[in-house]
Fold each of these.
Amino acid sequence: MAENGKPKLALYWAASCGGCEISVLAIHEKILDVAEAFDIVFWPCVLDFKVKDVEALADNEIDVCLFNGAIRTDENEHMAHLLRRKSKVMVAYGSCAMEGCIPGLANFADREQMMQFIYHDSPSTANPDGIEPQTRTEVPEGELELPAFWNTVRTLDQVVPVDYYLPGCPPEAKWTIAAVEAILKNELPPPGSVIGMDVSVCDECPRERHEKKIKRFYRPQEIEPDPNLCLLEQGLFCAGIATRAGCGALCPGVNMGCRGCYGPVEGVRDGGARLISAIASVIDADTPEEIDAVLDTLPDPAGYFYRFGLAHSLLHRTRLAQANGHKVAEPFEEIPHLDPKLAE
Amino acid sequence: MQIDYNALNPAWGARKPVIIGFLCNWCSYNAADLAGTSRMSYPPTLRDIRIMCTGRLDPTFVIKALRDGADGVLVMGCHPGQCHYQEGNYKAMRRFALLRRTLAQLGVHPDRVQLAWASAAEAPNFVEAVTNITEAVARLGPLEWHDTVEDIAPRTPVPSMTEEVAHG
Ligand code: FES
């Protein structure tokens, strides 16, 4: 607590897009209550604090830290450790901190592959001198430093202990408000809880549902969906069946299948595995050939199933090309088909 | 049955492939029993787990097995039309197809995850399935997900109070 009796609040962003910062402001005039109720000690996006201000605080002096963003550089990791040590309650705010989210998709590649693509191969790159970012660079004025970039994106709880999770990309304002109010009233759920709902997005979705049997998948640009009927029934990928509710089914509300940003429903360790189960069971096909034909209309299944949760999934990332000195598997066909023998 | 694993891939060293088998209670588990009582010979690589029906196979089981040290996973059930719960093996086939495509994108060679059918009387099918996956996995070498994936993520020590960060 500060001398004025207000609890101290810190907000930080690590590997994230900035949307979480904006979502904090999306609580609108309630932000004044937050400013009134809390003593904000660190919020680099909005207020001019420096890391040394945090370092100057005593351990556990910050009452609550809302930490958004995944951990992908040494700076992210340093700040996670520093803020954890200074904070009584650490909240993984938003999908990046909780599950890795879009930055976690980098775990489909490694550092080398990313540098190669971003600084050399991407169609929009013009880099005739082949310059790549270095952690240290000499310039006439002195030495410049950049954070070191890791091979693998990690979630906040893979780096430091986390007390609460606020899911969403970004979290909906009502849950941010709920969390702030719970903190102020000291009515927080047991540590480790996700602040939100335990049911799936389907429970919040007003669309009409029947038994689902689909012969092919469509990409959103390929059909104009019926606005009242379940999207998955119409062949549009929708992660709502295995995704935690709390958003009010915003995406299905605008004819777009749920992307899965609230993460898996309560009790599920690997959201992608749950989605594989759920999506496979709506396929209307019985022979290996038919099944493969339906699946051929769903390109990039891992991208769909692990869009938000790859860094927190059981496998965590793709296998690295060169691991532990011994060569790993030779290349293989990326779309394996079923053995026709399985028909009998 | 003797297989020289190191001849197929020198990375095996002193260890041999570990394959987790998920066998349906009504058919393939009995086929495995029958292969044993008939003294048929097959590679000693399978650690089997009995499930009531392949329809019960949650893809999480397979993913967890691979993450926790298995080099391959073999799923076996009743032939189409013979599932004791009518549809379980069809559901399993759809899930398996989607799971294997997903795993391939994550760098798991499709040969490491296999699906096969065997009725209670078909011990040779069971032997063939175990032999096939063992040989395929032996050629690919150890998976070692923990070592090749998890531990390669760099760890930095907890920073000391005096340490500076480049960007505040
Ligand atoms: S009972 Fe054997 S596969 Fe369903």
Note: Chain A has a mean pLDDT of 91.
Amino acid sequence: MRDESQPLPEPGQPDPSRRAFLKHSSALAALALTPPVALTAIDHSLDERLAAAFEQLPLQVRINGQAQQLSVEPRVTLLDLLREQLGLTGTKKGCDHGQCGACTVHVDGQRVNACLTLALTTEGREVTTIEGLGSEDKLHCMQEAFLRHDGFQCGYCTPGQIMSAVACVREGHADTPEQVREYMSGNICRCGAYANIVAAILDVKASGQKV
Amino acid sequence: MDINPKNQPVDRVDGRQKVTGSAKYFAEFALPRTAYCVIVGSTIARGTLDQLDTKRAAAAPGVLGVFTHLNMPAIPGWDAPVGGQADGPPPQPTAETYRILRGTKILFDGQPIAMVVADTFERATYAASLVKATYTRQTPKTDLNKHLAAAIAPSIPWMKDYSRGQAEAYKTAPVVLEADYVVPTEVHNPMEMHGILAQWTSPTSLLLYAKTQGVNATQRAMAQAFKLDPRNVKVHTEFMGGGFGMGLRTWPQETAVVAIARQLGRPVKLVMTRSQMFQLVGYRPHTRQTIRMGADATGKLVGLVHEATAETATYEDFTEGTVNMSKFLYACPSMQTRYRLVRLDRGVPIWMRGPGEATGAFALESAMDEMAHKLHLDPLEFRLRNYSETDPEHNRPYSSKNLREAYERGAAAIGWRNRPATPGSQREGEWLVGYGMSTGTFNAMRWQATVRVVLQADGSLLVQSAVTDIGPGTGTALTIIAHNVLGVPLDRIKVQYGDTSLPPAPTQGGSAIVSTVGSAVFDTCSAVKQTLVELATRPGAPLAGHQAEELALADGQLFVEAKLATQVAVAELLRQNQLASIDKTTESKGGPEQQKYSFYSYSVHFVRVRVNPRTGVVRVTKTVSVADSGRIISPKTAASQMIGGVAGGIGMALTEEAVLDHRFGRYVNNNLADYHVAVHADVPEIETITIDKPDYLLNPMGAKGMGEIALIGFAAAVANAVFNATGRRVRELPITLDKLLAVS
Ligand code: FES
Ligand code: FES
């Protein structure tokens, strides 16, 4: 970590704390193997991309059934990894603060807010996003129910609502309208499709289909 | 013709894309080498920027540029116009000017002082945190209540004071009510973050993925700002994650991103944070209203005065139709309105769903309830006694008004007869129970739009319009219209929209889009039909000798209505005439009859609430909303618009308030955890009813608008129900429990 009391480097000059971090961090095992020439390059801020490489860590995760070997910065959230690096834009960003539910995905079958989940914490886990639930030709029964009940308007909260809805049924929290409302309250729909969303979820639950 | 004879409920045409996540919103288009822009906002609301240290930010990894007032690239035509006409004229410039990243003057909290661009979102965000500023801070003026004395009359003629009959006639009435009502600042908060993705495809051409309610408006604004041929500015917004009004103009930070993309020579994407959406893309302005009302012993209104004072920015006068509905909703011989603004150190407001009418209806419809109580009249009966059969403002007939029927059907559905005549007298366990109602109204409009319709030889149909679908189901409604005019099966119709390469359409807002673009689809499809009929009835053609009026279209067949067997397939007709398609583009707008009538949609909202007398908690337990919005084209999506208005109305009534700390002029609850929009648990059983009677004076489908009336008036219905339950009148939204406990 940077000691805030240290003087700041001038632009274009190497940042001492950055250099120190790269040289001494024991967390980066790979660094031991770093050729001195590379460190010199970093010292001279010559190769930002090389520096970037050191800031990334390997991540092995299954996403929608596919094993992925990735390299990500520790500060990247699962949400931004999905949207900005993997092109899985079905998962939405509505607040980035765990306040809206638009980013809901399943990690090992549990619903989580992808914006509050650092990507690296999914190491060895199974992530399911809306893209992994069904496709336009082969909708999941919850997607069918949302379509039939018009459980959305602008559609932006919808993937999160659907991922949450599937989990809500699986958790056994979809027995009554009140229960659904309570257990779905982490998913905001500003268009206000709530009544139709609740109807869709109860419909799926009543049908006894396997979600 | 009846536009949907079978009242077919149709699943949303874009539904599959929305439920699978394949619908692409602006930030989701992948352009190679896209750079990420993050805004650094001012932490003071008024003063000057003294020093801005950007060195560390500029040297941070991956940073491509830090743009400030010192190095912001030039934007040749700064005055980007406001987009749509949701509810009157766009904000008007004042003597003060705000130009993003030009100069050191700070006019409002969160005003961008730097825009940092890097190769990844994380790097841009980190670098933005390194920008440090020092300011000379002045005491900000942000409290409307403290600065009422500085109120000014807006210069716009449309907003001038109104008077009919005798001035202040209410004073002469035996029963008089004077009361103040307050609607706080509320923020649109659509679920999708605001921003833009901009790419210069050549030195003189631009590609924009925008979050706008009107791609043509954004196209005009950017063409003007960068002095480009509008045809070289392509704007795409097929999907928009909600707007509610905040996408009715092109915001300065969007223009800045375009300038930065030019400078950097690569695509630049801005996705604002939720808290920046409180500061930089408008809000419903905090508005204080006074209603003065006089009625005689028979329950007839004698005089009415409606005054409103709203906040605006120092640099633009934003106005809306807050006092409008009071001029015509009730038959009142003497009526005056006054609308005033207070310029504060705030970002500029923008229309928010229902816009000013939703604010105004809270005052007027609360006052109607209060007056009914004074008169010992049922509030519904009081409204009926003052029902306006013709428009008292313009002295002309209404094109259609089925409000009486709406009252009756809503009252029956909620069980209005169960309403306790004495407030505070009905209980369910420890809860007090009350019923309330209100009326809403909004202009029914028809603007101008162009539509292209292509009937292919294979019998499929293509419909094209640049219009944006922000969520109401525009694409679905247009599909249903085309289906019913041309008889092409629903699954053979493709509607393309949300792109400037398509024929121009107005900005989505003001509940006017189905009326406007739907009419253009209707007219263009009718022109295609006429061509088909000509081809089919020519001498030697399959239906030769038949008249146009005898013919109908269904399931891809053109047939003689009296003799169903006499028919020809549309595809066959085109083939016989060696036509690959019939391709028509027409412009469509309302006719002169629009001057002869007053056009309004109406809603009636009934709610039942439970109030806990010990905790002050208010729960809405049942709502019935009735819409008189002409012929319903798409019953399914129309019902959704209504329930959406109810959810918004519950938030407006009970929880929504953007709170400023006036010492600093800054928000204290600028996030979705502290600014409470309605969530699942807040929204009860909702019943929606549509009167569903066509208004053919407005357009050939007979459809009036619905988006605004779904919300307008709702908050008053809740306030009235709370009064009925408790005997406590809350005149300041939201009705939070502290306001109910305070007096007990
Ligand atoms: S984006 Fe994750 S909860 Fe809102
Ligand atoms: S559908 Fe628009 S926010 Fe839920």
Note: Chain A touches chain B through 73 residues (CB under 8 Å).
Amino acid sequence: MLVNTVTADAIAINSLYNIALFFAVIVFFIVQGLLLFSAYKYKRKKADELPAQNHGNMKLELFWTIVPALIVIMLFFLSANTLSQLSGAGTQASPIHNVHKIGDDNAKRRIEDAKRTDMIIEISGRQWFWQYKYIKDGVNHSSQNDGELVIPEGKVVRLDMNSKDVLHAWWVPSFGGMLYVNPGEMSYLWIDKPPRGSYIGQCNAYCGLQHAQMISRIKVVSQAEYDTWVKLKKAEQGGVATEGGNAERGAQLYVDGGYTYAEAIAKGDTKNTGLQAQEVADLSAYLDTLK
Amino acid sequence: MASISIPLEKRRSALVEWLTTVDHKKIGIVYMGLAFTFFIFSGLLALAIRTQLAAPGMTVISQEFYNQAFTMHGTGMIFLFTIPFLVGGFGNYFMPIQIGARDMAFPKMNAFSLWLFVFAGFVMEFGFMLSMVANATGWGNLGLGSAASWNAYVPYSTRAFSPQAGMDIWLIGITLNGISGTLGAVNILVTVYSLRAPGMSVWRLPMFTWTLITTAVMILLATPVLTAGLMMLTTDRNFNTQFFTTADPRMWQHVFWFYSHPAVYIMVLPAMGVISEILPVFSRKPIFGLKALMVSTALIALLGFTTWAHHMFVSGVNPLIQRFFMFTTMLIAVPTGVKIFNWIFTMWGGSLNMKTPLMMSIGFISTFTIGGITGVFLGMIPVDQQLHNSYYVVSHFHYVLFGGSVFGIFGGLYYWLPKIYGRMLSDKIGKVQFWLMLFGFNLTFFPQYILGLLGMPRRIATYLPDRGWDIPNLLSSIGAFTIAFSVLLFIINFVIYIVGRKGEVAGDDPWEGNTLEWMTQSPPPEYNFKTIPVVHSERPLWDIRHANDNTNAHGKH
Ligand SMILES: [Cu+2]
Ligand SMILES: [Cu+2]
């Protein structure tokens, strides 16, 4: 691959690509070589020449059926092997927050077991920008006005992605892999211990007029720099919000967390949900509207 | 011009004759003429796209028009050019003659398919053209063109996100087009089943006819699925039904790709049939491994129905199911490879008549191979998770559909136009066109593989200068204009040598053909054959030519 591949995922995909490329180059030269050779060698020399009327050759035909079959079967197993090594292995089938199956605990566990995660960033695709929400650090941010997704180096970051409108796709080539971001459900992608640097990605599912402007810039920094950035951002946001409950934001939380959240609030025990004070207030406001 | 001196009375009746004809040859010609017109139009849109992308940050066309342009480029090339040209054009004209029939089984339904195709084509393009003109002249946005890309993914294509009427017009156009295609497929299958000349058993069917019936089976099984999906989306948009609006977003993707993956083979199999006709004729040898070629065609068609979800590797589909689709997708490379080697070994040891049809066929094999190989890459899930929707994919399917189908179509035109009009095209211009097209094609699309690997997504109207995409994009745009020039050469060739009657008189059989269309006059009479020929091998005309020498006319099979 021609981009700078920096995470284990991207490197694994790259080496798989290179193995396939090795066979591809061989097949390419054999085919083009035979083609050019026969086009050059067997040009008609005399108007009335009559070549041998050869209808086929079973052995040859078996050869070029079996050998390519073996190659693709080998590539199949190599791909399956790489696939099971990628960070997101086995999780794509489980859009746990899918509105159709709110509260699918098994699926939720599968996501949590899939890979140890240092931090979670919630990403919302919107026509035509990305919204970033740092769950633990309480920072809200977006890709508008060249806003960067700032990540501390060497951490395993899980992206919990959903869409507020049409389909989008998250793709940062240097990190390897992409995933559609769908309305009404969550998709999960991991950034596996990225080294320091600036990276760039772009929405890769056509989403309308300004699809071309839906760019994501990522900046991986040291932990200290990250902490400073978080403080700065929080100051900008006016500290941890403590306004009254907002039912609209609560509705979204409800979609995201389903009845587990609602249940916890009904019981008055939200310690294990990981919800922030503001979020509890929002969710309660929304649940009040349902009464 | 001779036609000017024809009295008005007669000319009008000629027009009426073309509008009311049920003759498969005339119907075929109208299909070809119209499909070629849509090819030019969709090609001009491609030039607009390539001009816009030639450098970063260009504003040659508006973002809004760009999005409509790539939507209509794709749908125009697929639904109004490649499929109707190969199936409606070549298929209608040559299949009945190749099997020794006097017409299609249902001539009136054939005419109905044609005019429904014409109507659907104008429905699809007319609103878009009006919108385009309105935009250019500053009338503002009429909203009569679709900008949802050819795959019209839900929910973008629903009323909530695409409120303009253009989306509905597009949906109705493709729906009608699908109905026309489905009727055509029925006609093809019944014709081949019931109207073959005596002695023409399954294994003696000409390769083009064989690929055409495989294609017809695919159309019959796949197109109604898309048509139904389009109708449901239309009612979702207009009558508040909820087939797709509240469904899992993957629902539409399944319906769409269940048609649209087989559609690739619908577009490429008949072109494979064309070059499978040309190669043995111009090599003066039987086709290598006829049965293997026929079986691999059928296998490709069959496997083609089991691979659609490889377009959904990043949509969030069950990993186990993904692996199934990865396996079938990679497997399809095997019968495809069999074809490529069989074609090469048809030429091997032959006596090659290096004329334009053969060169186009060699171009087909060379470029299609690259498209096929990169298809295996994209079939590997981890690689697809990196390259899905990138320019790598754009390049891959252009290597298959331009490198394959379009080279096949031009090969077929140089091969068969002398039969249709009784005059030869200029082989010199043909060769120049071939080299320019081959060079322009690779210049356009090879850099796009690099762009994909560099992370450029498809369907973006512009890009920033800091991405390192400038040079491959510029090369690609230069290539696109080279292709356009090569197509212009073809038009010039056609106008001078066929319309202007400068070409040599072709005679019945200018190429020493093998199949029955070379037995009758050029152009063929309305009834095709005075007496229906009897067939003894897959090369009936070879048999006649070599009846008196002892080079074993039938050969061993
Ligand atoms: Cu987008
Ligand atoms: Cu496909």
Note: Residues 63-98 of chain B form the longest helix (36 residues).
Amino acid sequence: MDIFLQQLANGLTIGSMFALVALGYTMVYGVMRLINFAHGDMVAAAAFVGLTVYTQIMGEATSLGAVIMIFLLTAIVMACIGVVLERLAYRPLRTAPRLSAVVSALGASLMIQNGIMLVWGPQMRIFPELVPQVYWNLGNVVISLIQVVILLLSLVLMVALYLFIEKTRMGAAIRASSIDQDAARLMGINVNRVIALIFIIGSSLGAVGGLFIGLYYRGITFNMGWQYGLYAFVAAIIGGIGNIPGAMLGGMLLGLFNAFIAGYISSTWADAFTFILLIAILVIRPTGILGERVAEKV
Amino acid sequence: MTMTNDILFEINNLEVSYGSIAAIKGISLEVRKGEIVAILGANGAGKTTTMRAISQLLKAKSGSIRFKDRELTSMPAHKVVRLGISHSPEGRRVFGVLTVEENLMLGAFTRSRVNQKTLRWIYELFPRLEERKKQLAGTLSGGEQQMLAIGRALMSNPEMLLLDEPSLGIAPILVKAIFKQIREIANSGVTILLVEQNAKAALKLADRGYVLDVGTIAISGTASELLASSKVQEAYLGKKH
Ligand SMILES: Nc1ncnc2c1ncn2[C@@H]1O[C@H](COP(=O)(O)OP(=O)(O)OP(=O)(O)O)[C@@H](O)[C@H]1O
Ligand SMILES: [Mg+2]
């Protein structure tokens, strides 16, 4: 029972991070039918940008106000990079064959990864302790303040995103554009603006995810985006790529799955089992758990 | 029905191509305020291409498309509807995984708020839509989807409505009902440019018509002239003399 509760807490924490990052993949795919392979590297970049904001702008302050500023500034910087990425790497290829966009995405991924290495170096850097090391012992289960912060903030962001998509005019424009871009244009929707907005939202959520990775794991490396990006991408597929609640669900499920494998079997097997899970889900339900529209588009 | 001589909409020497293949080879046409104008033609004649070029979903290779003295060809597609041209596209293109009501709201995207009077009018034109407003558009029958596509296009309160084959794949009885409501829409003062393969039904409804033949206008005239023309009868009405 203790292992169960402990891994439940750990699983929800990493699940939130997967979910935040998965949203970026799924939203871009939803509107553009494009896998933005650079997204994982954007997440990694966010951790480094956060580090620099902390040391250079905030003067290594860790007050609540300073931490909020670090999150905000990092999200803004990454949102801007996301918009530029779309303009330079994807927009010129909007009508080109899909394969060209995939190659461009892989190129962008490598460029961002190498960019991080050039600016911050190839060695592992230690992310600052922005959240105090507070732990609660509940029986034999240990929960940290960091875990609580990650889980709560992720939930708030996901609920906010859900309400934005379901209840607002721009949310409706995003949904319409993801169903049929030409029909959306006929409604007077500026699809280019919708796509820019998607990159703003996806990149800032990914930025928060990247900062969480730094907070939780502490060690950050220039190439870590590949690993976390892959997990989040798998989460998006499990939930049904293109489906926003699906990415949230897929992230949480994958986090829990990983934690339970690590708790009951061995953490060295977590990766292998993750891909067995992915294959199993794709065999049983090729569109993912909540995905239904994927095959609809020609 | 309030037909005047004011030209509301005009196409001049329009050429549109797909890559190196010319689909529209220099057509000209005009629509006056209050008219119903039909564009007829066989499969592949270029009717849909013309409609998409008007809405700027396709960019013209040359020529001009003017609506109330505004040139459309240099405009992005999403701005066209704001000028007062609304397009109900071929194949309906309703947002299948959204509800009927959500589809209608998207039709009013350019409005700062939904015009409740327009919404009520659309529900009066097509009561089926009100009955099904919480239903996903993709689960409607073809005819109901066509009603939704027309209703959605009306939500922006357009001056001119583009209808691309409203009878496509729909049972004859529903076609009749829909054409009756198109007449009703025209009576309310909306100018209509109608694309149809069903030439007979279209010419009964329209004031004037143009017959497209592989990218050029073969014949044009009033609806009664076209109905009487032996060329049109042979080619499009299935009558032999
Ligand atoms: N996306 C495209 N790429 C290449 N050629 C196209 C494309 N769309 C249409 N065409 C060609 O352009 C010509 C005109 O097509 P269009 O769809 O405008 O015809 P239409 O009159 O609407 O026919 P239908 O009554 O079958 O709808 C056809 O020869 C068609 O094959
Ligand atoms: Mg057509």
Note: The CA atoms of residues 15 and 156 of chain B lie 28 Å apart.
